[in-house]
What we know:
Radius of gyration: 21 Å
Distance between the termini: 47 Å
Amino acid sequence: MMDDFSMNLKKPTKHHRLVARVVKLIDAFEDEGQPTLAYLAERLSVSPFHLQRVFKREMGVSPRQYAEQRRLGSLKEELRNGRSVTTALYEAGFGGSSRLYETSNRKLGMTPASYGRGGRGAHIFYAVGTCTLGVVLAAITEIGLCRVCFGDTAADVEKELAEEFPAATLERADKDMSELLAILGALIDTGKRNFFGLGLDIQITAFQAKVWSALILIPEGETRSYGDIATELGMPKAARAVGRACGSNPVGIVIPCHRAVGADGKITGYRWGLDRKKALLDAEQRRSK
């Protein structure tokens, strides 16, 4: 992958140079496992969010996904050379068969989140700011966005984050993530989605995936009832389950669960308050006229 990148690089920009340095660090990493986003950002003196955004935009994958692909490539090479599976696993840096299975499952979409229950094993960076809906918190892992929530105070949103990820390492990084907060503010105020390829790193069931995908397809300025969504999914009796899936959305505004309403069109059931849901819908309807 590095050779292809180098050959296509005619006039290196600062972003190209940053990506090349990240690739070099990943390829040279000798400890068990792979370098974390925090480690890479610290070595290169940049913010984790900036590093993640630039790398994914230029390479099409996150630094962690790149490292996994490199290790999978090494594993395949070791197996082709006649090594046993166990030996090949360790030579490729997986440290054990469970790590390989976790990686494979994530690539197949079976376990989308990169962390365990309660955020176990995750280093989560978060930032708190203000927007037209009040206080907003955004949180990211090495893979992508894992939380967007709203509240009346910073203490409110930090409490929600801590309750969702009690087993994670949480690190506040307002300055480093100011760009992400600005992007979320623009999404709220103008509807402009400009995440530069930043993905989602969220716990998700197959049913939630169907509901959340349906929510994203609802045009701005429009709504669907929970029953409508259930019918669209081929499960007309699952309106309540759709409502629960909307209520469990971990990334408010990014997955627009506010566009789901009651059977009579009334605004119901928004985990961050009905006033915020109404404000979002009113703003979208004004923009769509």
